[in-house]
TrEMBL record, chain A:
Lineage: Eukaryota, Viridiplantae, Streptophyta, Embryophyta, Tracheophyta
Gene: LOC123448518
Family the entry assigns: Belongs to the F-actin-capping protein beta subunit family.
Name of the protein: F-actin-capping protein subunit beta
Subcellular location: Cytoplasm, Cytoskeleton
One Gene Ontology term, aspect cellular component: F-actin capping protein complex
Keyword vocabulary terms for this entry: Acetylation, Actin capping, Actin-binding, Cytoplasm, Cytoskeleton
Biological role stated in the UniProt entry: F-actin-capping proteins bind in a Ca(2+)-independent manner to the fast growing ends of actin filaments (barbed end) thereby blocking the exchange of subunits at these ends. Unlike other capping proteins (such as gelsolin and severin), these proteins do not sever actin filaments.
GO biological process: actin cytoskeleton organization; barbed-end actin filament capping; cell morphogenesis
Subunit structure: Heterodimer of an alpha and a beta subunit.
TrEMBL record, chain B:
One biological process term in Gene Ontology: actin cytoskeleton organization
Keyword Chloroplast recorded: no
Pfam families noted in UniProt: F-actin_cap_A
Name under which the protein is recorded: F-actin-capping protein subunit alpha
Complex formation: Heterodimer of an alpha and a beta subunit.
Entry GO MF terms: actin filament binding
Amino acid sequence: MEPAMDLMRRMPPGSTETALNALLSLLPDHSLDLLSQVDLPLQVCMDKENNKEYILCEYNRDADSYRSPWSNIYEPPLEDGTVPSEEMRNLEVEANEVFSVYRDQYYEGGISSVYIWEDEDESFIACFLIKKDGQGKRGYMQIGSWDAIHVIQVGPEEEGAAHYCLNSTVMLSLTTDNKQSGTFNLSGSIRRQMSMTLAVADGHLVNMGKMIEEMEGKLRNSLDQVYFGKTREMVCTLRPSPEVLSMRVPDS
Amino acid sequence: MSDDGGAGEPLSGDQKREIAVWFLANAPAGEIHYVAKDVRALLGDDAAYEAAAAEAYPEYNKTQLVSLELPDRSGDIIITTYGELDRNNYLDPRTAQVATVDHVKQTCTKLRPAADEELPSGYIEEFRNAIDYEVSKYVGEAYPKGVSAVYCTNGKDVEGPGADFALAVVISAARRSPQNFCNGSWRSVWTLEFSYAFQLVEIKGKIQVGAHYFEEGNVQLDTDVDRKDSTILQSPEDTGHTVATIIRHQESEYFSSLEESYLNLSDATFKDLRRKLPVTRTLFPWHNTHAISLTRDLAKELGIGK
């Protein structure tokens, strides 16, 4: 697995799917590991009943069908598709509602979906997904996409508190294209983890939401400042700007 | 590459080779050796790996314009199709030598003086040499790790004024900093078409810049641009000077546009995807989310909208 994961951090982010398929065929015995450790750009499907799009992932898949968080129905239709318990479904409905508002405030568009399942020992797993792509209303970007996957494991409630373990991935691609500056593409993905034990007094949704908001802020900042900053630094090392060069002359 | 989803079917040596070639060809600048190590471990089939390496390395070296030190340490040779005599032999036009290259090890093993028929005529060489001199001066100033070469790509036997010929200027600068999880390369190729009839030199360039940062993630910059310019046909010295000036101007203009793209990125482009803060400029009111749900419940009860 180690060489496989090393390859995944070297291949062009835009070719993740091809790279993953290649690894799957080389390592059929590790397919579960690979599928859980390599994230692919999110796909969407239309809930015809509600005329609303939803995001596909392992957490809403049963056989070849995907359950809509809006209608709780599988598409293509599945007779005995598994659905969450009533308690979980209620939380899921609320989470989808609230997360849509959150998504709209930060993303000014895009699609979001939340899926919740009970796990062993009275714990549960919630998967929050956001997909945003398009040209952007400010018009600088020709093609851009942001896919965020947040998976939270919520432990059983003990003495009024619960343990939350969040694993987040953001996959990003930005392309600008014009005659003067040609094609400029920056893309990539980063993954981070965050764990917290929090009082449940305000409800799970408030806690999960705050963690996701903090995490998304950190990921966005890292991508902007650190990751893009580092590639920019590299370009300036390859070809230092004239000011830097003239400053260096006395030293040499 | 072939997409046979035949799960369970063991891959044939040929399929393994094909997959390995794909990974090697997609290695970022300066990282093919790391990719090769991973691929070799994953394949568990040395014969398939060797075949893949033999196929992928030469293509990679030429695409990436890899530069190798000449065995006599007289300089660097750029691996490019323009200097390729055969699979393993490359011309270094500046020193008029032919280097034998080990593609997989990325080293030069042998060096011999180029034969007369491998070199351009004296007339062409005057232009080639003058441009090479000026361009390498510019490259030395602009790129701390840059190398350049000028090749004759057409009409190398033209003996004097009256016929068309073409040269290509290749510039390659690479930085490897694996301990800082960062690698990058700047590549540019400028083709010069000398037209006697129009007394003109048509200049076309392609610049490609790549950078990879991979500490706890994988972020890659990938850019390319096509540029065009022209100048009148002059003496070799004057042409050399003008061509280098044009390339310098075009490349620094492109460098500025990259800087500008980065600025726009943080300020505007990124914001188009996800804002730093909501439109309200405050964090999301998670504590009031009950209100959101309540409004919904209320709306449901009252039968208002959706």
